[in-house]
Structures are given as structure tokens and as C-alpha cells.
Amino acid sequence: MAHLRFGTFLAPNMMPVYEAIAEAVGAALGVDTELVVETDYENCRNDVNDICFVCSLPYVHFEREGVSPAVPVAAPVLQGDRYGGKPIYFSDVIVQADSDISSFPDLRGRSWAYNEPLSQSGYGITRYHLVSIGETDGFFGDVIEAGFHEKAIRMVASGEVDAAAIDSQTLAIELRDHPRLGDSLRVVDALGPSTIQPVAVSKRYDADFRYRVQAVLTDLHEVKGLREILDHGFVDHFTAVGAGDYDDIRAMLETCERAGFMEIR
Fold first, then answer.
1. What is the CB neighbour count within 10 angstroms for residue 2?
2. In this structure, are residues 114 and 207 in contact, taking their beta carbons and an 8 Å threshold?
3. What is the pLDDT of residue 1?
4. For an engineered disulfide with 74, which of 37, 183, 238, 246 has Cβ 3.0 to 4.6 Å away?
5. 106 and 174 fall within a common domain
């Protein structure tokens, strides 16, 4: 093995962290690495990448379809008391700062943006929340696909849409790096938590190799020079995870399937 291909399916504002992780894994294993930004999930489905940063919802979907090309080995634990030292995140519901919306129920009939339909943070958790409150018959007005959380944030800030659910890690990075956005937005609710997106290793590699990658990832916070990079993504450290850690995502998906509610409206 002389080369490892990493693929990321996650928020662009985390790219410095993903790049550093790919380089650190390569250095520890003595191999060259590349990081590819994926634009859809076909390469994930087709097992093109050796290691990937992937949303938990497509991972669970592929598993249920009988296609399970990768195994979760580690996930970030985010900085902040709200995360309780666990590999979780929230989906923060944002509106314009001067909006009359003060809670999720106020969104009835309002416009809603989401990043993409295989995102747990922007779509899956919202779908599950609507089922859990019995709102499966046209709760929102317009429902618009933005493509990325970063775009959905700006659609809300500009008034193009009324609200969106944003991965709390992604939102924190955007508000830090673009302070003016914070003046335009307000968080009115938080959905979740959900188990955070894993780093997953292709099943083409044996358990020993997956363990070696896991060991590198869980020691990253102790590697000289990486603390600043992890701080960029508000990551305290990485912790070991496995398939069972994503049972919460499976349960949410199954609840929506039983309700026959798979499309937000």
C-alpha cells in the first residue's frame, strides 16, 4: 500500500481539518495521501475512497440497502459543555435576527432551506422532528435545497428563506469566520443531538488496518502542530466509534419510514 485516497462529503469550512487528518494518517502509516472533495455519494456507494469523512445518514441508508462499503472507526468530540464529552452535535434552527419567529412551531407555513436530502443534520433530523410532533401533512411553505449548510445560512441571513437547521459545528465555524453573519441570525431551537459524522474506512481493508487508522485518529490531539488545526473545527479530540454508535440515526430513519414520511414538506 503506497497511497490512500480520502474523500470528504461534508461541509467545506472543515477542509483544513480534513486535510490535516489525511496528512497525519499518511505520515503515521508511511504512505502518500490525497483528499478528494466529493460532490455526490456515488463514489461512497461504489467504494472508491479508502477512507472517508461521511454523513451518518447515507452510511445508514447504504447499510439498509445491503451496500455497506465502509466501517466507522472514529468521530470528533466537539468543544463546549453542550456536547458533554460525547461524539454528538446538534442541528441549530436559525432565523433572521429581526424575525418574528421565536420557536419551531412558529415555522408553520414558512419557507425552509436544507443542505441536501442525505444530510442527517439538515434533513434527516428535521424529518424526524416533524414526525415526532405529528406534523406530516405540509408543515412548511416552500422547502428549498441549498446544496451546502454554508449557503443555507446565507439564504436565511439575507431573508431569502425564513429558517434552516444547521449542523452546530458548521454554524460555529461560520459565525466565527464571518462575524457579520452573527448580527443577522438568531437560533430559536436545537434539534438532536445526533451522533456526529464518522471517519470511515473501506471494508477492503482488514480489521488490523482499521485499528491502526483509529489509533492515529484518537491520538491526533497529542500530535505537535495539530492542536491549532483541530481548534479550527472546534474539535477537542477524536474518539473510537463503531457501527453501533449510529443506532440513533437508524432509529430516527425507521421512525420516519414507519410513518411513511420520507420527504420534508
1. 6
2. no
3. 64
4. 238
5. yes
Based on the domain organization, do 98 and 181 belong to the same domain? yes
Cis check for the bond before 12: say yes or no (omega within 30 of 0): no
User: Is the same domain home to 92 and 182?
Assistant: yes
Q: How far apart are CA 73 and CA 236, in angstroms?
A: 17
Domain that holds residue 13: 3-79+196-245
| Report field, pTM of the whole predicted structure over 0.85 | yes
189 and 204: one domain? no
For the record, the C-alpha cell of 47 comes out as 467504494
Quote the CA–CA distance of 203 and 218 in Å, as a whole number.
Answer: 20
Q: pLDDT tens digits for 55-76?
A: 899 889 888 887 778 999 999 9
Rounded-to-10 torsion of CA 13, 246, 23, 50: -110
**Nearest Cα residue to 93 out of 155, 144, 165, 193:** 165
Q: What is the DSSP string of 24-82?
A: HHHHHHT-EEEEEE-SSSHHHHTT--SEEE--HHHHHHHHHTT---EEEEEEEEESSGG
Q: Indicate whether 27 belongs to any domain.
A: yes
Quickly count: other Cβ atoms within 10 Å of residue 30's Cβ: 8
Q: CA-to-CA distance for 228 and 10, rounded, in angstroms? A: 20
At 201, which helix (H) or strand (E)?
Answer: strand 199-202
Are 166 and 230 within one domain?
A: no
In this predicted model, what pLDDT tens digit does every residue of 85-124 receive, in sequence order?
A: 999 999 999 999 999 999 999 999 999 999 999 999 999 9
Q: Are residues 202 and 173 in the same domain?
A: no
